[in-house]
Amino acid sequence: MNIKINGETRDLGELDPETPLLWVLRDELNLVGAKYGCGISQCGACTILVDNVAVKSCSYPVASVGEASVTTIEGLADANGELSALQKAWVDLDVAQCGYCQSGQVMAAEALLRSNPNPSDDEIDRAMASNICRCGTYIRIRNAVKTAAGQLATEE
Ligand code: FES
Ligand code: FES
């Protein structure tokens, strides 16, 4: 089985097609940014993108990817390691507390900005409601999304 991920095609060899994508990312591809939280599609710690749509990879069979392109947090920086606007905003605003949920938060925000480059506060809150932060960093998350949206708008 092959998978298109972060701009490359990777050979996964023989694999049970029902294997959750999160297991493949972490155990087969050593992409450990996506985290295991609940395992039942409730917390968002494992969020990645499949063709620009946020997906909870703990509950997503690897075979469901098919010909789509997967993006993980490791794929957001450019080839020179330059962080994306969203990642920079996250760092500048010191969003993370313990950090465990943050990869999933960034990927959910990335999906939002790819579909809605200028979201309102309500739209941010609705989109990010898919992801839980036990440290309560929600206000900083919203501010980082707005900062990144503003930055991306000036780059256009
Ligand atoms: S670990 Fe996937 S949603 Fe919680
Ligand atoms: S930063 Fe700790 S759970 Fe979100």
Describe the 3D structure:
With 156 residues, the protein is an alpha+beta fold. Helix content is 36%, strand content 12%. It is built from five helices and five strands. The chain has a five-stranded mixed β-sheet with strand order 2-1-5-3-4, covered by helices on one side. It is globular and about 45 Å long. One FE2/S2 (inorganic) cluster is lined by residues 36-39, 41-46, 56, 58.
Number of helices: 5
Strand order of the largest sheet: 2-1-5-3-4
Decide which structural class fits the backbone. Answer: alpha+beta
Mean pLDDT: 97
| Run of helices and strands | EEHEEEHHHH
- State the end-to-end distance: 38 Å
Q: What is the CATH homologous superfamily assignment of the largest domain? A: Beta-grasp domain
Rg from alpha-carbon coordinates = 15 Å
Taken together, the total number of domains comes to 2
Helix content: 25-40%
Low-confidence stretches: none
CATH-derived topology of the largest domain: Ubiquitin-like (UB roll)
Shape call: globular
> What's the level 1 CATH class of the largest domain?
Alpha Beta
Q: Can you name the CATH architecture of the largest domain?
A: Roll
